[in-house]
Amino acid sequence: MCVLLAALICLSGCNIIIPQPRDEYVDGRLRITYWEKWTGFEGEAIQRVVDRFNGKQDRIYVNLVTMSQIDRKALVAIAGGDPPDLVGLWSAGLSQFAEKRALMPLEPFMEKAGMRREAFTEVFLEQNTYRGTLYGLPTTPASTALHWNKRLFREAGLDPERPPRTLAELDEMAGKLTKYDENGHLVQVGFTPSEPGWWHWSWGYWFGGELWDGENVTFDTPENLAAWKWIQSYPQKYGAEELRRFQSGIAGQFATPQNPFFSERVAMIVQGVWMANFIQTYAPGLEWGAAPFPSAVPGLEHVAMVECDSICIPAGARHPDEAFEFIQYLCSQEGLELLNMGHKKFTPLKEVSPEFLANHPNPYIEVFITLADSPNAFYAPLMSMWYEYNDEITPAFDMVMFGTTGPEAAVSMVQERVSDMWVRARASIERRERAEAEAAR
Q1: By the 8 A CB rule, do 135 and 324 touch?
Q2: Same domain, residue pair 223 and 241
């Protein structure tokens, strides 16, 4: 019956009209839908921004919907032709959406609205740009820094107001801050590259390395190899099995009082600007400080991993102009300061109000702003297959960290596997671009 129906349609020359959902209105205002991933205090912060926008005008009503697994669900909705009008993504996953043509370019909207790129810190616009096109705008940015426990420094005979300034100093201090029980088991670690375990891919940058040069995978380089030899020095000092035992005892406890930094089992850690909020919640009496994580290379200063959340308009959105009107407010100084004060972060704008800095609950907020503006700030490569790349790095890191593989073999293995994947991915990209160019002609 289906085949017959299709044949009749083709023969008759009729067009199938797919019914479209009707526009919905709230008190006479056009209702647009915004999918966002935040919950808790972060969700409350974006709801305040939405409420402020809804109260400022009488033409558009933004309906905020909290969405788990937002990247997967948004791709399905876009492919099915029924996307939301707005979606909040992680910057690291934006390339995947852009490669699938799942997002609308934003620069035409910015030009029409008179928004200036120069108002934003450039590193966050870079993370929202794929192959020369801007597909998102940054909302809540972050940078990472060394966090240290001042009380444990004092107990170890170290100056609690002086964090390590070189990687060699960090290693030396870590030894003084490490303790064992009567059975020879680790009970306190000064530092370990395996904690918190979120950015195994990043260590080479403090040695002058990178993961991708814009065209090729660059994992197997002297700089990255030096970083992985440094990683190996920790199991060599403390024992791979002993570190594994210690790590298993602290795993999965980030947002709890048992977090190893909050419970003072780890004295130094790399963490993001958000850490101050969790310290206030789970360890309010903790004495802590934040400073740039030290580099292994003389003269290479203020190295920091940066990332951001992004606001985007999905391809096929039914109300893109109205959606961008909300983006314009969200990305204004008022909107971003309201949002980021709630998230306890800084804003992606170059200019902020004096009140924002004066009232900020993070006493080291200007450290994180300085790191984000550093020429040595770095971020995950803008590759559509970045998640697959990272999936190769993580098990290789574990093999080096826990003594089953040497750094040379691990680095070489990642380079070979990811390079093969990238060759196939690049060929697919080039085929699509040729097809699009031919269709345009």
Answers
A1: no
A2: yes
Segment (H or E) for 113: helix 107-113
61 phi/psi in degrees, rounded to 5 = -120, 115
Distance CA 179, CA 318 (A): 60
Yes or no: say if 396 and 413 are a contact pair by the CB < 8 Å rule: yes
Q: Give tens-digit pLDDT for 162-194.
A: 999 999 999 999 999 999 999 999 999 999 999
- pLDDT tens digit sequence for 302-343: 999 999 999 999 999 999 999 999 999 999 999 999 999 999
Q: Which two tokens stand for residue 229?
A: 């030899």
Would 433 be classed as within a structural domain? Answer: no
Give me 16's structure tokens.
Answer: 């199938």
Using DSSP bridges, classify how beta strands 60-66 and 29-36 pair: parallel, antiparallel or unpaired: parallel
Q: What is the pTM of this model?
A: 0.91
Which domain range does residue 159 map to?
A: 143-305+381-424
130 backbone φψ class: left, alpha, beta (φ>0; ψ -120 to 50): beta
Residue with tokens 């992985």: 228
C-beta neighbour count of 282 within 10 angstroms: 18
The total number of structural domains in the chain stands at 2
- C-alpha distances (whole Å) from 381 to each of 92, 98, 171 are 8, 14, 28
Tokens of 117: 């790129």
- Which distant-in-sequence residues (6+ apart) come within 8 Å of 408 by Cβ? 225
